[in-house]
Amino acid sequence: MTQEERRIYLIRELQREMPQYENLAIPDTEDQQWRLLRSLFNVRPPYPASKDFLKVQDEYLSEMIRQRGITVACGLPRVKNDPKITLWQGDITTLRCDAIVNAANSALLGCWQPCHSCIDNIVHSLSGVELRIKCNEIMQAQGHEEETGTAKITPAYNLPCKYVLHTVGPIISGPLRKSDCDLLASCYQSCLELAAENEVQSIAFCCISTGVFHFPQERAAEIAIKTVKSFLETDSSIQQVIFNVFTDKDLAIYQKLFNNLNMAALVSRRTDGH
């Protein structure tokens, strides 16, 4: 099957599964067909999928991801004076590493809003429907919503990485409180601990809670760097932590913080007489 044939097959199968969408016309262009397919992925409940459907879906998504380009994490440069930390601007779903972190909501079932721009939506869309099915199994077994500051691990399915770590960050609706900062630090700590337990050697963090959850970006970056550096001081299993940023503003924030840390270290060494 060609990519177009796979795309149309998947759309029709999803429309058959969800009759309320069967009257939606299949567009003529590739971009619009993908938008419709992604929308149907986003609204599909977590019931089992047939082997035939999953085979075509996996072939389609794997080829799509290959065409988008894959970034090999181990080849990315480290920040100055820290051989285990990388700062990288790009699309986290293109990274080939052991694990990426998904900023999830408390239901842990992905974003249901068709084609929403949040990372939760993009991760689920490109992983395929098995990710929501797996997350639903975890949540059914747990019996309650995921608590803020905790983490769960799943396979990454069609993404280039091996695992996805799902964590629920704090939602900011008023002045920032110490408890919000503690919960965000707990997100990073929980992910790192879960990664180490599962023999993950390279992990990529998105900017947790700074999008639709409205955590102030600079304070969030400070907490992220501090928590990761503190963990790496006592853990020897994780070899690379990637701070993944998407916007130029986030990149500038992290660059400034790392430059400040380097200056502070330089001043400290001079004070110590080295």
Explain what you see.
This protein has 274 residues and is of the alpha/beta class. The protein is built from 8 helices and 8 strands. A 6-stranded mixed beta sheet has the order 2-8-7-4-6-5, with helices on both faces. Strands 1-3 form a two-stranded parallel ribbon. It is globular.
Low-confidence stretches: 265-274
Helix segment tally: 8
Strand order of the largest sheet: 2-8-7-4-6-5
Write down the overall mean pLDDT: 94
Shape: globular
Q: Specify the CATH class of the largest domain.
A: Alpha Beta
* Radius of gyration of CA atoms, rounded to a whole number: 20 Å
CATH topology of the largest domain: Leucine Aminopeptidase, subunit E, domain 1
Total domain units: 2
Q: Portion of residues in helices?
A: 40-55%
**N-to-C SSE series?**
HHHEEEEHHEEHEHEH
Largest sheet: 6 strands, mixed
Strand content range: 5-15%
Tally the beta strands: 8
End-to-end CA span = 65 Å
Overall structural class, as computed from helix and strand content, comes to alpha/beta
The name of the CATH superfamily of the largest domain reads Leucine Aminopeptidase, subunit E, domain 1
What CATH architecture of the largest domain do you see?
3-Layer(aba) Sandwich
